[in-house]
Amino acid sequence: MKSSAPYRTGQRLPLEAPNGAGETIQLRLSVNPRARRISIRIDARAGEAVAIAPSERRLSEAVAFARSKAGWIAERLEARVEGQPLEPGQIILLHGLETRLEATGTNGAARLTADGVGPVIRSGGEGEAFARRVENLLKREARTQLVARTEVHLKALGQRPVKVSVVDTRSRWGSCSPHNRSIRYSWRMVMAPPAVLDYLAAHEVAHLVHADHSPAYWSVVHGLVGDHRPFRAWLKANGQALHAVGR
């Protein structure tokens, strides 16, 4: 496709991998009006790269940038973590701790307990039924923790209540819509250490004060959780593994 051809958000393009074997990489185009520059994001779950531009008229620049980074994109996609099914015997993270999944041989709901080794989630059901029960428990745990920490940070900033939704996003850990006072979180944050989950709640609540990522915004975040860099680093290092759970 010629560089002068029109592009649109959501469009997918083949990107030739720089390995000389004729392999292609899937590239998805996206527009984010809040973005300050052209960027590339790896969507590990979808197995594709996302080129992000501040406006649709700059998507051609995003495509050119992605082509110049084809080698880096190929390496990141190749290194992505394989899916980790929710099945008996698996070890997943819960609140940052390794947690074993066990089958009870019944039809009962999943329960969080512990033994001499550490946390255990025991659940009834087989196959998809087992996985669904475990995921439902994780979502309940996530909602409890995220709502609680959101309320703490709302109170600290003197903010009114917001509507909290816990969903399964493709890549983002959370998002805030100040105009309708709603915050969406990924349930997968329940697998992160409590301090990282708390940082995410502070991150989204701070957007009620500043909708951008300006120095003033980060000052609000710092006032809530202190130095945020270790928490962001943890998510960057472990994010792909969290998104692989249950896939």
TrEMBL record:
Residue ranges occupied by any YgjP-like metallopeptidase domain in the UniProt entry: 37-237
Protein name per UniProt: M48 family metallopeptidase
Source species, domain of life: Bacteria
Native species: Brevundimonas goettingensis
Pfam families: YgjP-like
